[in-house]
Amino acid sequence: MRKKPHGPAVPLIAVDRKGEKPLHRQIYDAFRAMILERRLHAGQQIPSSRALAAELGISRIPVLDAYAQLLAEGYIESRSGAGTFVTSSLSDQFLSARPAVASVVSDPPSDAISRVSRLLPLEGTPWFLGSGAFSVGQIAYDHFPFRVWSDLVTYHARRVRASSMNYSDPMGSEEFREVIAAYLRTARAVHCEPSQIMVVNGSQHALDLSARVLLDPDSPVWIEEPGYVFLRHVLTLSGCRLVPVPVDSEGLDVAAGVKLCRNARVAYVTPSHQYPLGATMSAARRLQLLEWAHSSGAWIVEDDYDSEYRYESMPVASMQGLDPGSRVIYIGTFSKTLFPSLRLGYMVIPPALVSRFLAVRQSNDLGPSHLYQAALADFISGGHFTRHVRKTRQLYAERRNALTAALRKEFASEIESSQMEILGAEAGMHLVVTLPPGLSDQKISARAGKEGLWLWPLSAAYAGANVRQGFILGFGGTKAEEMPQQVRRLRKAMRR
Ligand SMILES: Cc1ncc(COP(=O)(O)O)c(C=O)c1O
Q: How much distance in Å is there from the Cα of 38 to the middle of ligand 1?
């Protein structure tokens, strides 16, 4: 059972024992100001007179006097047995119009923040805010093995020792890295030793570290066009020069990349399941990309974000496993296979770069926390992870089938006449549906978001101007039986 907390937080009040104003008046004034300026909000509990006196190091009498005055004037009320609270019915007209924190967010003057940070959009995009049908990155929360997971977390939480409370190994716990290495060698054909594995706070963290280690301002970098928008944000902050390279049904077009910029320092790719269009990079292209990296001394960052989920064939092996010369930095995550707020992912770093990555990691994060690493290591070695992936693979295949069937029914004539296309439904937890000419995905998404329908516009995935209009539709979090109704809502949103 949850224990009652120790009581409300004590507000920050400075009292001056030698000041001219008596103590009770100082306390009264401080509370009154905090209530009128809404720093203490209506209905909020305030500390007992005993607790406040102890905190301020004064006798209880001035506190009792101040509370009596506030009570008499109606700023606070006492509820028998529960404590003392800011009056819940204070009329707005008494309260300051100025909230404690400005609610309208606007950029400070341009010389007050960095130039690169100003290059990122301030998130006001409605499709980014919500979760529900079609929002990308949602998993089947309803099928998560909560019992097993919470038992493991509880088990480790109860066995906290001094060693697990200290800073952890910045590469990640040894036991966890061994478990990850064994999984990657078996399931993803990755060549790795535990000493090359770095546990990170999700693949976003790994993308950021890779940019800090590998790139200088102005370094040319290949990115997939279209590609992952938050990778673009990371690279924008590094100041590097983005070279968007088109993708086709075989993944990144390496020859086009060479033509655009032969001497790029890094190529960022999603070979197992190109984000967002869904192609699997062909063997020929993988070898071509590796050959280019070796001959030009470039690095490849392989973002293997959802490769566990393939529906028409076995998962395809990683590209890192094809590379004898260690030009590939491999990144993976538990956000799709388990849940995104876990914030656990991993990278496999070429031996020559491990110490560099470690030095840079310690400049922005001193290491992952112990508890979830320990719980997840047990979850994987106990076979629960493999079982869960197997179960959800089948579940997501059903959800994918339901979504494609509903799209084919609802948009039969548009799909028949090739005005709309369904792309990338063979793997992962999202697919792409393109839009007929004349429709703007961002306009539709903005409107639909207000009605709780989260449509990620395809055009936002492009770095250049030559964009396709469409939606990236997540299907991991929506039950198969709900798909037809959600697709009808999509159709309505498009009609409007
Ligand atoms: C292509 C791609 N890379 C990286 C990520 C980041 O995932 P996370 O930081 O949750 O591991 C995502 C998330 O959806 C993604 O789609």
A: 39
User: Which residue is listed with tokens 């103590």?
Assistant: 23
Contacts of 150 (CB under 8 A, 6+ apart): none
Per-residue b or e along 234-251, where b marks 16 or more CB atoms closer than 10 Å to that residue's CB:
bbbbbebebbbbebeebb
> Does residue 469 have its Cβ closer than 6 Å to ligand 1?
no
CA-proximal residue: ligand 1, atom 3 (nearest): 305
pLDDT tens column, 2-42: 555 567 888 888 899 888 899 999 999 999 999 988 889 88
Residue spans of the domains in the chain: they are 23-97, 145-386, 389-495
Hey, is 200 helix, strand or coil? strand
Q: How far is the CA of 461 from the centre of ligand 1 (A)?
A: 13
**DSSP 8-state secondary structure symbol assigned to residue 264:** -
Using CA positions, which residue lies closest to atom 14 of ligand 1?
137
Q: Reduced to 3 states, what is the DSSP secondary structure of residue 448?
A: helix
C-alpha 342 to ligand 1 mean position (Å): 13
* CATH number of the domain located at residue range(s) 389-495 in this protein: 3.90.1150.10
For 23-97, CATH number out of 3.30.420.40, 1.10.10.10, 3.40.50.720, 1.25.40.10 equals 1.10.10.10
Q: Where are the beta strands (DSSP E) in 313-469?
A: 328-333, 345-348, 422-423, 430-434, 456-457
Q: 145-386: what CATH class? A: alpha beta
Is the distance from the beta carbon of residue 456 to the nearest atom of ligand 1 less than 6 Å?
no
Tokens of 348: 């496999």
Q: What percent of the chain has pLDDT over 70?
A: 94
Atom of ligand 1 nearest to the CA of 137: 14
Ligand 1 centre from 495 Cα, in Å?
31
